[in-house]
Fold each of these.
Amino acid sequence: MEGLQTVGSALLTLGLVAVAVVLSLYERLGLEKDIGVAVVRSFVQLAAIGYVIDFIFGLDNLGLVTLLLAGMVLFAAWTSARRAEEVPQAFLVAAVAVGVAAVATLGVLLTLGIVPPTARYLIPLGGMVIGNSMNAASLTMTRIRDDVAEQRPKVEAALALGATSRQAVSPILRTALQSALIPLIDATKTTGIIFLPGAMVGMIIAGADPLEAVRLQIVVLYMLLGSVSIAAILVGTLSYRSFFTPRHQLRTTPPEH
Amino acid sequence: MDRPKIEVRGLWYWAGGTEILKGVDAGMPGGEITAVVGPSGAGKSTLLRAINRLIEPSSGEVYLDGEPTGSLDPLELRRRVGMVFQIPALFGASVEEALLYGAHLSRKDADPGRLLEMVGLDISLAARDPQALSVGQQQRVSIARTLALEPEALLLDEPTSALDEAARLRIEELVRDLNVRLGLTMVFVSHDLAQVERVADRVVVLAKGKSMGSWDRADFFSGAGERARRFIAGRL
């Protein structure tokens, strides 16, 4: 663990960031500012969450843990809704989807006694569930929005043949769900061969038994598959409606601005 | 004149702050082919979509056999009043699947062989991939899948605009043939006056979202509708 004990030594890794900045300048990628923002934000956000988690671990109060997780869900929904602009009620849809995914998967882990009900487990696992569900929610919403706009003639043709909104949009829903789930399924398939998941790497570096790290990682992977599926399906089911009227009509100003 | 099969009264439609239809009145008699003509942006396609309620009129009403369509179940209405679009969007991996899409949704029996025969296509096409057909053939399949629902009326939104000259003439012939054989009421949007003269029994003229009147084909091309015809002929 030597070398990782002071903030100063962590800052030495900024040298590696300098490589990215130099590359951006040299190749005129115009990303220097973004890299800077990313570096500062990640430092501030991680430091802040470190103190918050440290504080909550100290109290070990389940109420506070729940509150923190709820805050994370709302922030995830806000982020996802910003990504999926022009999708009506995107915030509400994302909040419901991410919230249900988190409650369902963490609930199962707790009920089955797979993890103990302590802040040490619930906060990092919750963070992973919420983050991945958020990505799935954003992907699903933006995909549905783009495809409904692009495939308008097909949707109209189906409606004109007596299809309900749901029936008319079902091919679009299918591809949106696939695009949200496939990256995680592929990552799960190749895990351990192509990449070692972050949580496992962290545990091993921190000195945990590798087999124990693997056990937890398997729990994490299955949990993520479950929560991402729940989030994507909920987003699909809830968000397609906003593109139609209750009388099975495509909204004429395709939800844009 | 008898009560028209389809009657449009005082139809307004605005979307996104733009008025697209500004009080359209028109009647489409049963068993006839009514052409809707007008310059682009006149609201022809919008009018068609208001008839089968693919869009909701902002005010005014469309009547089917005297019944306000606003009070009908929109899915049922769309089965009674079929629609064919400019671009045939066919669903499924085979022509047969594409033909039966709407019929399956409403759990109606339909014979793909008979449907193909009705639109002048060979039954051997049933197993083919619809995307492998010519656009003209695809448009026939899209007409046939609408007929599978046994509609009382058919709306055609510039159905020949994506076709070459020969295919266009064959679709026109098919439209006339179906009108005679099935007694189907048809509403045909076109911006081609020569086509209107070949196909339509009646002509409704739209300009800038307003109806300018309607005429029998003969009147429109040589009699009382002559002025309206000249007016729009310069703007198509």
Note: Chain A touches chain B at residues 153-154, 156-164, 167, 171, 245, 247-250, 252-253 (CB under 8 Å).
Amino acid sequence: MIVTNRIVFRPVQPADYLQLYTIESDPTTAMTWRYRGNLPDISEYEPALWQQTQQIMVVQSRATGEVLGYVQLHDIDLRAGHGWFSLYAGPEHRGSGIVMEGAMAFCEWVFTNWPIRWLYAHSFEHNVHAFESAVRRGITERLGVLHERMMVDGELTDVHVIGMRRDNWMDSAMRRRFNDLRARQGNVL
Amino acid sequence: MSNDHAAAPADAGAEPGDPPADQPLGSWRLVSPADVPFVYHLVAQVDPRWWRFSRHGLEPSQVLQTAAGISAGALVSTAEGEPVACALLADAGASGTGMFEYYALPHPVAEGLARHFAPQLLAAAFNGAPIRRLYYERFSGDADVLGEAAAAFQLEVTFPEFALINGTYEGRTTSVLTPESFARWQTEASA
């Protein structure tokens, strides 16, 4: 668990599933990598949510208790030392600082709790802008584009492959600032 | 489906191990369940390069379970009928994509035969399934089994330092072949 003044980053609980389902039911989220528009019925949601998934962490507001989004760690390959992640946020929180804080909490958590050298993410063309800031800061790298990889909503869509190197996160100024701020706030447990 | 050849065409771009034009060649045929022991042998011989199988180690039931998810495959054999290479079509899905995985036993004759038959196997993959984009992944240190057909592929993704192989982290690339780019390559290669 990671705590800041604004968020709690913690493992998902069954009581969170309905909120996660609501986030994923948003039309703009339903067209992301995982379900590609085929979100299962709520009765089949739990096994679908955990398919190929090692861990799910939620980003919760400390002020309201609302689950703002979640991060899925999936397809871990311990022999190679890498895994994949998917990040989901409620539409009203996308692009906000609080989601960025959740993303930083995820980086800190995953690289200090899993023996992973690289994290990868797939992103459809219409979502790849979410990684721009991290690419500019050298936290993430563009590894390539799978052109016309998927059929989404009847149209062929490019899939970008984003990579995050453990050493880049551990040595980053962003990480230092994140943890310094947590320490000053008294939020380092 | 199979394809026997009496002799290889003259190949100006031949590499060591490629079959000489005046010697009998091998053949290829579709994989059958009876070929599973050879596939396991091949995976073990190139371990851990055939990552689909080796990523979890080589516990046989795990390898069999992985093999069960394969759409189709072909075996390359010498003129004497000894299998030396295997190509598999995996992850063929609704989006019209598939993964072409192709490995040869680690010796020059096997790799040469693999290169020789690569164009035919790629053609068979497109003929046998409605694939609009065929992906091929390889480690930087993998043996060349595509030969000149590699020129028809476009590089799309590079994963640096993907996995540890013999003490060194090797990168892994994903390249793609479309029916159109393959047809263009075939036309140019035969010109």
Note: The first helix of chain A runs from residue 17 to 25.
